[in-house]
Design brief:
By secondary structure, the protein is α/β, with parallel strands linked by helices. The protein is built from 22 helices and 26 strands. A hairpin with a 2-residue loop joins strand 11 and strand 12 (224-229). Helix 15 (400-416) packs parallel to helix 18. The structure holds 5'-O-[(L-methionyl)-sulphamoyl]adenosine.
Length: 654
């Protein structure tokens, strides 16, 4: 339970703020829904939570995406930000604060940070000469580029920058960062990531360029509007803005430092683990209690899912797939996608996302284990006890230990961000409860008239479903509510609170109300057959398509008229003629044609023919051929294709 000390201070959790040049994909959704689950857990414990997310809008790539869409950057950002707000809403993400870095309040905080660090000498003006990767929004020195002179992170081309710029004296803080991180290792988790950060910092922190030439997008440097503040420097400050730094001292004191800052592993080492911590040191602010870097969702072949690689998984398409295949409600499908993401991979490692895996887990874990316990238990309460939970007799409480174990594991999971372990603990409890029903066979107890035992068994099993609802509520809020409703606690006005996570707190008198199964089973064989049929149809369509060529394809074939100036047999064959053709170019061409058996050289000389003029040159029987003469005839040339009236050589044929 929350201690008094915890209640005094807010639980402050952040996700990265997302580049607004993009639509949210499964990778973004992962950070945000995981943070949401953790925030919900702390709210359920009665803590005052500040869960922050938002959008990072001052990137160069936003300007480029806006240009491509024919909009100015601000209008583009205004439009795209709704796709994030809508997606979080649809994915049951309940944040407390959404920051857009283009908001005036945030811009003022960024300018204030800059001013203070200028005043303390932590920011100084110099000259930048080096490379910049726009997709990664990262500066690189020449040495840091990969072998081909490309971005070491994404492998794309980098841009050369030579400009006057401001630098942040990160080099001054390397030793202090190492000391701090070593003193409190849990500040950067998991361990493997912390080691990467430490070795990066030990390699020598360089001063960081923190401005770009002002091209009309970004927060201007206070007092020097020829420059704007570097997008990462600007974006990291969003955490300070949300906490009220320089805006509201009381709020800041109650909020800072963050308890958990979540992010993907790609933005830990260079940014959160070093630049951000160095900025905080320079500002004399406390470090976050924990930076946690989760892994990536990758494709089956191990490639990171990202917009630039063109392999994104749209979380909403997965939700729709579940609804279509199982007939569950959209809210349940959303929770099932959340469940899949948390259960499938250990938080911190990479995982490969697959729709098949999602449907499989829906059946195995949700329909079978969780759904089954509900679907078999509630009808028993209806049948044997008129739907009413009775005050249990002395035999109740047989599953208390299992409940205690699952609660302890869930708490540990939420505290250490082991979301998978947290769910696995719950599923152990479910399987213990399913086994308990099998073993205690309430139907037999009923037949044998063992009323007291029967009431105790039913109580224990429904009590498990109650605790399970509480334990999964942070991860699957809608499913938990539906279970709460089905076991009648909603109608009794009982709130879902973590304090209820103890065996035996199911109030007698609750009236169960069985609903439709929450997780209707998916017919996986039917899905497989359908997928196979669709794939076959697609490949057939592709084949058909390859029989046809488009108008554009046709226009790529350059057909021209040409006058045959000379014709000679090719030595060593009785089929080929060597033609000299005037195709309206500076020099006549030499074309080898398989016409010798049907046409004599005399017949051809002076004839205007049609030539494929852009055919790749080839050497046929040792003779160079630049083009092809068109003739009709399937097996052998029966008739030459010739214009029906006089045309100059070199006319286009179409
Ligand atoms: N705007 C910066 C963050 C600034 S925070 C002060 C940014 N944005 S992002 O949109 O590119 O990425 C946002 C988050 O999504 C990052 O934590 C990133 O790791 C995460 N993911 C993006 N693709 C991902 C996967 N394929 N898998 C898991 N998470 C990944 O970086």
């Amino acid at each position: 339970m929350a201690t008094e000390e915890q209640r005094d201070k807010r639980f402050f959790i952040t996700t990265p703020i997302y580049y607004v040049n993009d639509r949210p994909h499964i990778g973004h959704t992962y950070s945000t829904t995981a943070a949401d689950a953790i925030a919900r857990y702390h709210r359920m414990r009665g803590e005052d939570v500040l869960f922050l997310t938002g959008t990072d809008e001052h990137a160069q790539k936003v300007v480029r995406a806006a240009e491509a869409a024919g909009l100015d950057a601000q209008s583009f950002a205004d439009r795209v930000v709704t796709s994030f707000v809508d997606m979080w809403d649809k994915m049951h993400v309940d944040y407390d604060c959404f920051i857009r870095t283009t908001e005036d309040e945030h811009k003022a905080v960024v300018a204030e940070v800059f001013r203070r660090l200028m005043a303390s000498g932590d920011i100084y003006k110099d000259h930048y000469e080096g490379w910049y990767c726009v997709p990664c929004e990262t500066y690189f020195t020449e040495d840091a580029l990969n072998e081909g002179g490309l971005c070491p992170d994404c492998g794309r081309e980098v841009e050369r920058l030579t400009e006057e710029a401001y630098f942040f004296r990160a080099s001054a803080y390397g030793n202090e960062l190492v000391r701090e991180i070593e003193a409190q290792p849990e500040r950067i988790m998991p361990d493997s990531r912390r080691n990467e950060v430490l070795s990066f910092i030990r390699g020598g922190l360089q001063d960081t360029c923190v401005t770009r030439a002002n091209q009309g997008w970004g927060v201007p440097v206070p007092g020097d509007e020829a420059h704007v503040i570097y997008v990462w420097f600007d974006a990291l400050i969003n955490y300070l803005t949300a906490a009220g730094w320089s805006l509201d001292d009381e709020k800041f004191a109650a909020t800072w430092p963050p308890d958990v800052q979540l992010m993907g592993k790609d933005i830990l080492t260079r940014f959160h683990g070093s630049l951000w911590l160095a900025m905080l040191t320079a500002l004399e602010l406390e470090f976050p209690a924990m930076l946690f870097a989760h892994g990536w969702w990758v494709t089956a072949s191990g490639e990171k899912i990202s917009k630039s690689r063109g392999n994104v998984v749209d979380p909403w398409a997965e939700v729709e797939l579940l609804v279509e295949e199982s007939g569950c409600t959209t809210d349940v499908a959303v929770d099932a996608v959340r469940y899949y993401m948390f259960r499938e991979v250990t938080f911190g490692l990479d995982g490969s996302f697959s729709s098949e895996g999602l449907l499989g887990r829906f059946n195995a874990d949700l329909a079978n284990d969780l759904g089954n316990l509900l679907n078999r238990t509630l009808p028993l309460v209806e049948r044997y006890a008129g739907g009413m939970i009775e005050q249990p007799g002395p035999g109740a409480g047989e599953l208390s230990e299992e409940i205690e174990r699952a609660v302890a594991r869930a708490e540990h999971g939420f505290e250490t961000l082991d979301l998978r372990g947290m769910l696995m603990g719950v599923w152990e409890l479910l399987s213990a409860a399913n086994k308990f029903v099998d073993e205690r066979a309430p139907w037999d107890l009923y037949k044998q008239g063992k009323k007291v035992e029967l009431a105790a068994v039913l109580y224990d099993v429904v009590d498990v479903t109650r605790v399970v609802a509480l334990l999964i509520a942070p991860a699957m809020p809608s499913v938990a509510e539906e279970i709460w409703r089905q076991i009648g606690l909603d109608a009794m006005g009982i709130e879902m609170s973590w304090d209820g996570c103890e065996a035996g707190k199911l109030p007698p008198g609750a009236q169960v109300r069985r609903g439709r199964p929450i997780f209707p089973r998916i017919d996986l064989d039917r899905v497989r057959q359908r997928v196979a049929a669709e794939a076959a149809e697609e490949s057939e369509a592709e084949e058909e398509e390859t029989d046809m060529i488009s108008y554009d394809d046709f226009m790529e074939i350059e057909l021209r008229t040409g006058k045959v100036l000379d014709a000679d047999p090719v030595e060593g064959t009785d089929k080929l003629l060597k033609l000299v053709v005037d195709a309206g170019e500076d020099e006549p061409r030499q074309v080898v044609a398989g016409l010798a058996q049907e046409f004599s050289p005399r017949e051809l000389i002076g004839q205007t023919v049609v030539l494929v003029a852009n055919l790749e040159p080839a050497t046929i029987r040792g003779v160079q051929s630049q083009g092809m003469v068109l003739a009709a005839g399937t097996d052998k040339p029966l008739a030459l294709i010739v214009p029906d009236r006089d045309v100059e050589p070199g006319e286009r044929v179409r």
